[in-house]
Design a protein that fits this description.
globular; alpha/beta; five-stranded mixed β-sheet; three-stranded antiparallel β-sheet; about 190 residues; 5 helices; Uracil-DNA Glycosylase, subunit E
């Protein structure tokens, strides 16, 4: 079965950075109706740790899920856009693993970037997302924590935020923090 990405790109006015994952997990793994919906994925914990000094800063204790309104306000304030590298996909093993994800249609990156005139940084969260963007841009896949240059963009490859990726949360956050600092999002 071919799945279509469930959400439109999140692009706040003046976005300077575009973060691209691969593709959302199956809907039964969604705790929220927004990017990085799986409650065990560390993306929102990494953002909380970097920007607020608290991995649970974007979590709503009462609701028991990450707070979409707080997340969108944070992303808008910081000029961070979100999307994924895959628009349509087929799960070869019925799970969320990038290893078993067939790309049916990739993100129309050029169209996406044309709607973001202030964007100068593209960041991928994991190896598969980095590979897809490298193919689209005809660049080499950077090593983790490094970037490739393409037109006027830096294309960073960050560690996967999946808990299946064997790296401590704090170590992942250090990679992201260095990228955000380089991109001028953090000082």
């Amino acid at each position: 079965m071919i799945e279509t990405h469930p959400w439109p790109p999140f692009i706040p006015d003046g976005a300077k950075i575009l973060i691209l994952g691969t593709f959302p997990p199956a809907i039964n793994r969604h705790a929220i109706d927004f990017y990085y919906p799986n409650p065990i994925n560390d993306f929102w914990r990494i953002m909380g740790l970097i920007f607020f000094g608290d991995k649970m800063a974007l979590f709503d204790d009462k609701a028991g899920v990450f707070d979409i309104a707080r997340i969108k306000a944070f992303l808008t304030e910081r000029g961070i856009a979100l999307n994924d590298t895959v628009r349509r996909a087929r799960r070869l093993k019925g799970n969320a693993s990038d290893k078993f994800l067939e790309v049916v249609e990739a993100v129309p990156l050029h169209d996406l970037l044309s709607s973001m005139p202030c964007c100068h940084t593209i960041t991928t969260t994991g190896e598969k997302a980095a590979s897809i963007i490298a193919e689209i841009t005809d660049t080499k896949v950077p090593r983790m924590g490094e970037y490739a240059e393409w037109d006027s963009y830096k294309i960073w490859r960050m560690p996967s935020t999946s808990r299946a990726y064997p790296m401590r949360l704090e170590a992942k956050a250090e990679y992201y923090k260095a990228m955000f600092t380089s991109a001028g999002i953090l000082t």
